[in-house]
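From the shared-data thread, chain only:
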Amino acid sequence: MSFSSIATFGLLAASALASPLDVSAAGVSLPGLPAHCMTSYKGIAFGYLPDDERADKVNMASLAALSGKKGCFFGDYSHVKGSSYDGKDITGKGKLADGAVVVPSIMPDGVTWKQVDAALAGRIANVAKSFTSQGLTVYLRFAHEMNWYAKPGRADPVYPGGMKYDEYKAAWVNVAKECHKIKNCFMMWSPNGNDLDQLGNWWPGAEYVDIVSLDSYPKDRATIDRGFGGSFGKVHDDFAKKYNKPFLIGETAFTGSEAEKTEWIKKLTTSDDLSKYPNYKGAMWFEYNKKENNKQNNFYVIYGHNKKEIDGVVANFQ
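Structure, as tokens:
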């Protein structure tokens, strides 16, 4: 998982303020990756969304200590409950990033898309600024899995803006404009792996998306066997490759055996068929033990594991 020779960073526009990620000149790469963070032998950067319910034990520093490798990405969540949003549920976590790229999933689960006006977008961007002011890079993952959480009847949480595509896109543009005023703030578009044929309805436009992403969890062994292409290939090709953007897996994990978890990581980091997906640059693992729908889902691959199991994961990385 160590990263001894990092890929060229994404280019920034030559202005004092940040602008949409410029990938036109030198090909795509993820911006702001810290030196020597974990990357696979195929050049895939790797990081975590650590279990925030056990943050005293499951955090970027403890995972690095257990594995001997520092994660490239630190993901966490923040909830927008109203127009006075200040992000205090996440802004104090800069030190927990341990130098990694911060990927704040900012969820408008208490406001509609229309309520994300320029003023509220500015408040959301201030969350990014709280991290960039500490020298950290931010991939702002606004309204992730909107194609799932906005569905009628969904609970915990619901995006009350619903399936109003134009209003969603207007909200996204408002946030993107504020993010792009901040150096080292990049917009990460991260739908859910369902209804992939409908994602065009949610696309905000290439000018306002810096990084294309997708959240997808294998449901069975057959999904693992299909590898990266089976779960992520369509979105990679339809959006990242089409618009020349880097592709980053926003969330993935598996609840099966330790051998199957390790195999899934191997498929996503060192498989030969990754050469078919040149814009694919990184992945984030959901390092949680979480109860959902009366089922305990243990996604851990580092925390709580013995040396042999951890070494099986580490073997995929430099």
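Helices lie at 60-67, 118-132, 146-149, 165-179, 221-241, 258-269, 307-314.
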